[in-house]
Fold:
Amino acid sequence: MDIREVILRLAERNKTISVMESCTGGGLCNEITNIEGASQVFKFGAVTYCNEYKVKLGVSRYTIEKFGVYSAETAREMSKAISEFAGADYGIGVTGKLNCKDTENPEGRNNAVYISLCDGAGSRFYGLCIRVNSHERKKNKAKVIEQIGCLMVNNIL
Structure:
């Protein structure tokens, strides 16, 4: 089962999903919107490369300062903030470093990506940290999106 199956099941159940992604640069939103009928399910997607827009969409500045932008805690807040912002039944947050240095945010593990899925009420969270090791960003993004699909399959269906 993949993201396509999750989107179809969400449509059957009249449930919605929204995404706040950083390092995947819109790749997850693209994957979702490539599925026919996704417009019934997909409410909102945001690519928030800079901290300013994570905060504007509801992530606590305190969380970013205390744990770092590349952390499970920030991913968790991203998933909750985007579901609340869009009024969606589920939210996904993705943040991490894909084989690069970030002079604005030097903290955090290199080649680690943090993913969080939450229900719209923010009462259940499912998290994942994966390591990426390709020198090609495109391959790293594909690996992250594949793992997000697994997280969705295991926790939404």
Summary: The beta strands are 17-21, 42-47, 90-96, 112-119, 125-131. The chain has a mean pLDDT of 88. The longest strand covers residues 112-119.
